[in-house]
């Protein structure tokens, strides 16, 4: 049985609320430059691939909640060898790409809020992982959070 608490629900609820409002447009009267359209498409595609591959690699360990499943094991291979949270990385790239594609400052602002949320959600998630897996601290010290070099 998974033991979710208020923090788990708040993080996931906020994440999905940001996903939802991202797809509505608020006209701020500002747009991004047209030259970002093609880089946006590339970021969207790469981000989608990174997120999808990461989800597939986690397999039965996957949960949207920061608290790991009771029967889960620590997975550090594949994309998880290079980043501790490659699903978040893929989603970030995907949302930046869509913001660029649609030339939307509003969507970029939502994406920045999502990045901040992912930072704090991953901090909390890692506190849960450290208490569950004795090897997690070493993994954390040797592997970037969202990108290999961070």
Task: Describe what you observe in this structure.
The chain has 150 residues and is mainly α. The protein has one domain (36-62, 73-150). The chain has helices spanning 6-22, 37-58, 86-101, 105-132, 136-142. The model has no long low-confidence stretch (mean pLDDT 91).
Question: Which key phrases capture this entry?
Answer:
single chain; 150 residues; mainly alpha
Summarize the structure.
By secondary structure, the chain is mainly α. The chain has helices spanning 6-22, 37-58, 86-101, 105-132, 136-142.
The total count of strands amounts to 0
What is the terminal separation in angstroms?
A: 34 Å
Mean pLDDT: 91
Helical segment tally? 5
Q: Level of helix content?
A: 55-70%
Shape: globular
Whole-number tally of structural domains: 1
> Tell me about the biggest sheet?
none
Unreliable stretches (pLDDT < 50, length at least 5) are none
Q: What order do the SSEs take from the amino end to the carboxyl end, as H and E?
A: HHHHH
Radius of gyration: 16 Å
């Amino acid at each position: 049985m998974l033991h979710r608490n208020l923090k788990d629900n708040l993080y996931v609820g906020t994440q999905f609320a940001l996903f939802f409002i991202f797809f509505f447009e608020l006209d701020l009267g500002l747009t991004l430059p047209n030259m970002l359209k093609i880089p946006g498409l590339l970021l969207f595609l790469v981000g989608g691939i990174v997120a999808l591959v990461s989800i597939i690699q986690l397999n039965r360990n996957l949960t949207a909640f920061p608290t790991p499943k009771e029967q889960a094991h620590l997975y550090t291979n594949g994309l998880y060898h290079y980043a501790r949270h490659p699903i978040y990385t893929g989603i970030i790239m995907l949302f930046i790409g869509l913001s660029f594609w649609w030339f939307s400052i509003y969507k970029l602002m939502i994406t920045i809020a999502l990045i901040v949320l992912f930072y704090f959600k991953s901090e909390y998630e890692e506190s849960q992982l450290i208490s569950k897996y004795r090897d997690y601290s070493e993994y954390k010290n040797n592997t970037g959070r969202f990108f290999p070099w961070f």
